[in-house]
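As the next step, I selected for study a record pairing a protein sequence with its backbone structure tokens, which the following lines show:
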Amino acid sequence: MHCVRNVTEDLYWVGANDHRLALFENIHPIPRGVSYNAYLLLDQETVLFDTVDWSACRQLLENMEYLLQGRPLDWLVINHMEPDHGASIEEILLRWPKVKIISTEKSFMLMRQFGFQVDGHELVEVKEGDTHTFGTHTVTFVAAPMVHWPEAMVTFDVTNGVLFSADAFGSFIALDGKLFADEVDFDRDWIDEARRYLTNIVGKYGPHIQLLLKKAGTILDQIKYICPLHGPVWRKDFMYFIDKYDKWSRYEPEVKGVMIAYASMYGNTEAAAQALASKLCEKGVTDVALYDVSNTHVSYLIAEAFKYSHIVLASVTYNLGIYPVMKSFLEDMKALNLQNRTFALIENGSWACKSGDLMQKFIDEEMKNMTVLNERISMASSLGADKAAELEALADGIIDSLKGE
């Protein structure tokens, strides 16, 4: 059964929703699913913009056959070759053997690497600034390398103002019938998953996102629709989401608040984290988020680290080192290029308290543009009454830092 929605005039969403996949890219949990977006333009010539993951190929084909009504597919435009979008290319070529393909040089290279038999088809290699007309619609192509693969491009339809944005402006969560961002309460129900998507998938490549945003800024008055490869289509309030992307890709905190991430073996380090959270709230700082790094998937931790201005790391010492899951969190923050944050530290150790110094060393030497507060809680096994002054000082230090920003 077909499942399509009209985007505008003669453009249709022909993608699919996936609630069966547990891990996106086999690493990030997606408990609310994900969409694979593809778009079909019915002009004088017919054009498919991107495909879908192999698991959703049947739905894509049913959608296309319903809309084409026996017409041939004339063109296939591939903006991004990652398999969750490009995996169905060869099936499209088998069904419509005369289809012509438009993409970048590196994209065609990747198609061959994936074993797709594209060389029997007409291949149109495009680069920045090239244009193509399909009848009444003319599109122009914009290079978007490393957002987040090197072959990526975006396509702008100058006729109807549709920006096919590839993986930019995407989000986790299946659409489930609601195609447009204004059909949901995005700020309430979607923004956390949009942040988690961007920061974990593309976070490392902030400067490349900034370059794409600058290019988009030159045509912002012409953009009427943003059609990403995951998540809802945007047709109003563009600046709300563009501002989020701008902050995330400049590694600017979205919120002045405190994320407390703790690694605790038997609950004593957790108790210290809870005590700090309570003290901060008691003093009027209530935008505090507390996470156990042992049972919170790191993709959620990364998303929150991109959100908050201040991060407290509370770790037990383990084998004279940082507790492994906390060390992994630090490594992931480094890998995804997180910058411009203020850290505070809580360390624990029953006979050799090393984690605080090691966390500070990692932040100072391995990460960029970070500040570590001088105030620190250092515990021997548990937080005793004798540590009340340190707890008070740490809370005050964080609050002073928040006020100083």
